[in-house]
Design goal:
The chain contains 12 helices and 15 strands. By secondary structure, it is of the alpha/beta class.
Length: 395
């Protein structure tokens, strides 16, 4: 029973304190992996009886279980406790103009199933097919769930990365005219209905930035910009550890930023199609544009093998990055995407040289070293954060 003058859930009550301790231990198991009861007590400062009661409670709730023992010490072997992988599962998806990739993972982050579903043959999801986008998403997730031996009831969260951004006022996807089937006002509700779990739709470059902070070049940095250089060009801006989104979700849409030497993208992104976005920064440094510098059938690798082209691309990149740096003053700029990967460290060095004098702040410049798809990795990280907030809440 709660103390007089308090209500269940009031800060400071035993129930809330127990829930806080539970979450602390669960987060430690996420960060460290299997731990003994003694080590948990050392890390939390909890007494031995309290730690034993806590672990018993979490084990009964299906959140932790024992996984062998730690031997080699005097006295009896100490049991190891770890998160129960079956406590919850998540779906992470990446959508692009040609299809959708989905993966399913358990609460520890272990990937159990993966599926790729292609869109219509012309590379687009037709707008005139009712619920076609939701059907494609469901098909991708269902395939991943089958491979994992799971069902919809096992999911606790789903995050989808897509070009563009959801307008917080209208609920519509903006800045992505090349994904016409994703522009319904009811898209989030439609997706939640077919998946049976809450769905978050997130900008793909923002998710790449999440992955960089979790396991890439931006670890231990709270103020950084990720510049995405691929068929499309964009940026994710993180200030004080928080993603900058803007009033309409369009913060970081630097592909349309006007720059010297680039045609203006009159009419905004909704009026521009094609790989270079029709104008702005994207028409100077996107992957198709850089390939074209090497000739009609050129590759990114061939382009960067030419020192003249390397210098020109670095100059263009530095000009655009300097405009961002002058406004947000990050401590780090991460270059990601196929252009950055092809250019590698020699591109990074040239960009740093070209930045000299263009902006007073002098951030570090790094090339992303993430393996695999950073958008899917970021979607998985965000989905796990959401699922753990739900599953680990024992209050």
């Amino acid at each position: 029973m709660a103390a007089a003058g308090s209500t269940p859930g009031t800060p400071g009550t035993p129930r809330v304190l127990r829930a806080m301790n539970d979450r602390t231990v669960l987060d430690l198991l996420v960060a460290h992996g299997p731990l003994t009861r003694t080590r948990i007590g050392e890390l939390t400062g909890l007494s031995k009886p309290t730690t034993s009661q806590l672990l018993g409670r979490l084990e009964a709730a299906g959140l932790v279980h024992t996984t062998g023992s730690l031997s080699g010490r005097p006295g009896p072997n100490a049991l190891l406790y770890e998160l129960d992988p079956g406590a919850g599962h998540v779906a992470a998806l990446s959508a692009d103009p040609t299809g959708i990739t989905a993966l399913v993972a358990d609460i520890t982050g272990t990937v159990l199933g993966r599926e790729r579903v292609e869109a219509d043959s012309d590379g687009r999801v037709a707008e005139d097919v009712r619920h076609r986008t939701a059907q494609l998403v469901a098909e991708a997730v269902d395939g991943a769930l089958r491979r994992a031996g799971l069902g919809h009831d096992d999911l606790r969260a789903a995050v989808i990365g897509t070009p563009g951004a959801i307008d917080p006022q209208s609920g519509q996807l903006r800045y992505a005219p090349h994904l016409p089937g994703w522009h319904s006002r009811t898209l989030r509700d439609d997706l939640a209905a077919v998946l049976g779990t809450p769905v978050t739709i997130e900008n793909d470059v923002n998710l790449a930035a999440v992955a960089e902070q979790y396991e890439g070049a931006a670890q231990d940095h709270d103020n950084y910009v990720l510049t995405w250089l691929d068929d499309g060009v964009g940026a994710a801006i993180v200030l004080g550890g928080v993603l900058l989104r803007g009033a309409t979700g369009g913060a970081g849409e630097i592909g349309y930023m006007p720059l010297p030497g680039a045609p203006l993208a009159h009419g905004g992104p909704e009026a521009t199609r094609g790989p270079d976005g029709g104008g702005g920064f994207q028409s100077l440094v996107s992957a198709p544009v850089v390939r074209e510098l090497a000739g009609p059938d050129g590759t990114l690798e061939e382009a960067f093998a030419d020192d003249v082209i390397l210098g020109e691309v670095a100059r263009r990149l530095a000009t655009g990055i300097a405009a961002v740096v002058a406004v947000v003053d990050p401590e780090l700029v991460v270059l990601s995407g196929s252009v950055a990967q092809a250019g590698g460290d020699k591109l990074r060095v040239r960009v740093e040289e070209e930045l000299t004098g263009l902006a007073l702040p002098r951030p570090q410049v790094r090339i992303s070293e993430l393996d695999g798809d950073p958008i899917l990795s970021g979607a998985l990280r965000q989905a796990l954060t959401q699922a753990r907030d739900r599953v680990f809440d024992t209050a």
